[in-house]
TrEMBL record:
Gene3D superfamilies: 3.40.50.360. This is NAD(P)H dehydrogenase (Quinone). Transmembrane segments: none annotated. InterPro entries: Flavodoxin/NO_synth, Flavoprotein-like_sf, Flavoprotein_WrbA-like, FMN_Rdtase-like_dom. Residues 6-192 form the Flavodoxin-like domain. Belongs to the WrbA family.
Length: 203
């Protein structure tokens, strides 16, 4: 059987969700997956980015990360999303991309994709759980298989205990408060494992 193909799709302004995505890539590769880390297109005006040094620096640092396309969704057996919260919901950049998936959805191309999600906010009750759940709502419409970490490993508790997906608090200086690297890797490995089961079942 061919390796599970995982797309890690993120949006990030300051680098937190890019880092979560890179840890997910590491975890998935450790269990043999083929991984693409992909960013969604930026919608913010150049003037807004230019006026924020940290945002500008992150955009520059990740300029070589490819932007996600619909072909990437079709290619993937599994998808992990990573986004900051915006008022308890996903950022408009991610929503805009998801809104372009209608053609794939209509043709049944997204059914049985194994999906999972991660998030971040500036305080521990800033909407991380709601943001992840908002992403999953779209996935239910796709007919995807949502693979949450639940409490499947002790690392979940060490990272804050979010059963829906890894989430992290980011302080005013842009530093992650909780140590979530192990939880992210576990979530990625679990997502790949479930995708393997689905892939075997379809052969």
């Amino acid at each position: 059987m061919s390796n599970v193909k995982l797309a890690v799709i993120y949006y990030s302004m300051g680098g937190t969700n890019y880092q979560l995505s890179k840890w997910a890539e590491e975890g998935a590769k450790e269990v043999g997956a083929d991984v693409k880390v992909l960013k969604v297109p930026e919608l913010a005006p150049e003037s807004a980015i230019e006026s924020n040094p940290a945002w500008k620096a992150h955009v520059e640092a990740t300029k070589d990360v490819p932007e996600v396309t619909l072909d990437d969704l079709e290619w993937a057996d599994a998808i992990i999303f990573s986004v900051p919260t915006r008022f308890g919901n996903m950022p408009s950049q991610m929503k805009q991309f998801l809104d372009t998936t209608g053609g794939l959805w209509f043709n049944g191309k997204l059914v049985n994709k194994v999906v999972s999600a991660m998030s971040s906010a500036q305080n521990s009750h800033g909407g991380q759980e709601a943001t992840i759940l908002s992403l999953y709502t779209t996935m239910y419409h796709w007919g995807a298989i949502v693979a949450t970490p639940g409490y499947s490993d002790p690392v979940i508790f060490a990272s804050g205990g979010n059963p829906y997906g890894t989430s992290v608090t980011v302080d005013q200086d842009g530093n992650m408060v909780e140590d979530v690297q192990a939880a992210v890797k576990h979530q990625a490995k679990r997502t790949v494992q479930i995708a393997e089961w689905v892939k075997k079942g379809n052969q």
